[in-house]
Amino acid sequence: MVYVFAHRGSSGTCPENTLSAYKEAVEGGSDGIEIDVQYTKDNELVVIHDNTVNRTTNGKGLVKDYTLKELKMLDAGCWFSEQFALERIPTIEEVLAFVKEKEGLLLNIELKNVVIHHEGIEERVIKLVRDYSLSNRVIFSSFNHISLHRISKLAPEIECAVITLDKQFKPWDYLASVGAAGWHPQWSKIDQHIINEMKKRNHPVRVYTINKVDQMEAFLTNDIEAIMTDYPGKAVQIRNEIRRTRGGE
Ligand code: G3P
Ligand code: MG
């Protein structure tokens, strides 16, 4: 079965990276959620995608220039719809506590540390995941592969996954050099040959971001580990329909 990961939560139907988006993802039957993590000014870990708060809150400026207390005063929902006006930017701990309570739910923690350097973020996230006893349900990912390599050395028990935007030559060799088991490629930059080669080598491939119905149908019937989607409820429905018409997998 191909897993369905909710990309920034159910971000097509709720404000991204909010507890409402994660709750809706779980209610829709997601197997996992994907979150983006970065530091505040006072070195707290918060869940927000962009380096600035401009797009997804009513504030302005860089996340790293706000303290946690200041970030918590921003509205992280009304940009999406008035219905979500009380949403706040979650801390990573709020998400870990949420995931801990949902039996079997997987969590992909993406470190947003490419543009802005976050000193010591690897040790911090590893400690938190261990404190919550979630090592076997977490996958760390990043576009910063140096950071992932560091995590793989510090916490070999937790899966790391390399995120890529472009086509890759022999990604299995590259993954080995980073120390990552997983690969999160952009959907249009892969082909069947590379999927088959990764499968042969037992590398989990989670493809992002699959939002169209025909793409969901194609990838949910392929030999990959998971899709990441902004519409996890829709993807789960399609997966159920595929199972029904094929007589159950
Ligand atoms: O992990 C897939 C995806 O989340 C990476 O891109 O920009 O949505 O964080 P982005
Ligand atoms: Mg992400």
From TrEMBL:
Q: Name one GO molecular function term.
A: phosphoric diester hydrolase activity
Its Gene Ontology biological processes?
lipid metabolic process
Q: Which domain of life is it from?
A: Bacteria
Q: Which residues form the GP-PDE domain?
A: 2-239
SUPFAM superfamilies, per the entry: PLC-like phosphodiesterases
Q: Which InterPro entries match?
A: GP_PDE_dom, PLC-like_Pdiesterase_TIM-brl
Which PANTHER family does this entry report, sorted A to Z?
A: GLYCEROPHOSPHODIESTER PHOSPHODIESTERASE, CYTOPLASMIC (PTHR46211:SF1), GLYCEROPHOSPHORYL DIESTER PHOSPHODIESTERASE (PTHR46211)
User: What name goes with this protein?
Assistant: Glycerophosphoryl diester phosphodiesterase
Q: Which organism is it from?
A: Oceanobacillus picturae
